[in-house]
Amino acid sequence: MPACCSWNDVFQYETNKVTRIQSMNYGTIKWICHLIVFSYVIFALVSDKRYQRKEPLISSVHTKVKGIAEVREEIIESGAKKVVQSVFDTADYTFPLQGNSFFVMTNFLKTEGQEQGLCPEVRRGPRVVGQVTRVPGGGTGQRKIMSRGYFHTYVMFWFPKTCH
């Protein structure tokens, strides 16, 4: 349409010239092409069920814990009540992931008379330096060498307060 501003140009229209060719060869090629396209559409959508194709879900959950927890407890020491405050930070009340699990600590129960720390491993007496030892689950690998080449291996667990 020309870029003119007359009313005659507004009401003009153009058509394409259509030519009909009567040929058995061109008609056969046309319908074979149509058949190939339709066959692929039917195969892709119906037999291969691509209309139902689902993508696998890939996701991850990341949690972040902030803040501190303050625990106040009353203990009796030398016949007098004493308020003791314990402060737990994020490292104290969160736990490492294990597989596809998620753990949130919602309650804390303290066993009276115990505390977490280093304590000599309980065995039948001290061992000689150079002896091959296996350190258990909470083992630190730290050793306290005693007299005459004997040592104790220290472990990190909950122990009675009298251990230290």
Automatic annotation (TrEMBL):
Does Hydrolase show up as a keyword for this record? no
Gene Ontology molecular function, alphabetical: ATP binding; monoatomic ion channel activity; purinergic nucleotide receptor activity
| Protein name in the entry | Purinergic receptor P2X 7
List the source organism: Equus caballus
Q: Where found in the cell?
A: Endomembrane system
Cellular-component GO terms for this entry: endomembrane system; membrane
Q: Which InterPro entries match?
A: P2X7_purinoceptor, P2X_extracellular_dom_sf, P2X_receptor
Which protein family is named in the record?
A: Belongs to the P2X receptor family.
